[in-house]
């Protein structure tokens, strides 16, 4: 199995935030995590990406492509994250924002080729020198996704990435994201409050409150 959570929960002062979770996702499959506010959805994503604050502990096992991630440092996990706030660097242009994400060791021409082909794919081929502050919400969202994908993640985590987009843009961007995940053939976990975000072929995962 490509991605597995085995009896995973996150504890704060030894109290579990949610009931132990077991999930399996195959390549290209999207798991939609739903649950009440404060149930631990974002904290679970932080445990998977390796960015859990030290006040929390993670128990159980998290496996990606056959190996446990628990002892793997954050920079080696190959887990990409997309948030509802895009976190683009405001003082850099589109190209400069994207070049940061590329794997190390590429030549300048390889960097340019990957970025240009990504921009064409995002229907933004002449935007490389644009100041990110001048982009529309939908354009920012696509650049932000592109930045996540250029890092060649083996798993992608989506923390309410559609929440701030208006209804029409939301549907378009959602399709764009799901198509890229299918093309890359990597598993993805999506946190959302909107059942409409759940793809028909996806796996619905409900976070349940832990019993005392
Ligand atoms: N750094 C922290 N220190 C202490 N408690 C925290 C910290 N971060 C989050 N929490 C608490 O952990 C719990 C889970 O928070 P989390 O953000 O994961 O919930 P969520 O399910 O993503 O919520 P929402 O749907 O509202 O975004 C909450 O009770 C929250 O207050």
Automatic annotation (TrEMBL):
Record's protein name: ABC transporter ATP-binding protein
Domain ABC transporter positions: 3-204
Family matches, as InterPro entries: AAA+_ATPase, ABC_SmlMolc_Importer, ABC_transporter-like_ATP-bd, ABC_transporter-like_CS, P-loop_NTPase
Keywords: ATP-binding, Nucleotide-binding, Transport
UniProt-recorded Gene Ontology molecular function terms: ATP binding; ATP hydrolysis activity
Superkingdom of origin organism: Bacteria
PANTHER family per the UniProt record, alphabetical: SPERMIDINE/PUTRESCINE IMPORT ATP-BINDING PROTEIN POTA, SPERMIDINE_PUTRESCINE IMPORT ATP-BINDING PROTEIN POTA
Entries under Pfam families matching the protein: ABC_tran
Gene3D superfamilies the UniProt entry points to: P-loop containing nucleotide triphosphate hydrolases (3.40.50.300)
């Amino acid at each position: 199995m490509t991605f597995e959570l085995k009896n995973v929960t996150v504890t704060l002062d030894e109290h579990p935030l949610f009931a132990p979770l077991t999930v399996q996702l195959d390549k290209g499959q999207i798991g939609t995590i739903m649950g009440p506010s404060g149930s631990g959805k974002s904290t679970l994503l932080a445990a998977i990406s390796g960015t859990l604050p030290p006040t929390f502990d993670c128990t159980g096992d998290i496996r990606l492509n056959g190996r446990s991630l628990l002892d793997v440092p954050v920079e080696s996990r190959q887990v990409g994250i997309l948030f509802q706030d895009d976190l683009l660097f405001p003082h850099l242009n589109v190209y400069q924002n994207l070049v940061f994400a590329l794997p190390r060791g590429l030549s300048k021409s390889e960097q340019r080729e990957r970025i240009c082909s990504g921009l064409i794919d995002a229907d933004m081929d002449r935007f490389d020198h644009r100041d990110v502050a001048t982009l529309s919400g939908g354009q920012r969202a696509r650049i932000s996704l592109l930045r996540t994908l250029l890092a060649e993640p083996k798993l992608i985590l989506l923390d309410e990435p559609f929440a701030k987009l208006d209804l029409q843009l939301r549907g378009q961007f959602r399709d764009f994201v799901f198509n890229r995940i299918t093309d890359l053939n990597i598993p993805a976990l999506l946190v959302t409050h909107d059942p409409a975000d759940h793809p028909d072929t996806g796996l619905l995962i409900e976070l349940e409150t832990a019993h005392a």
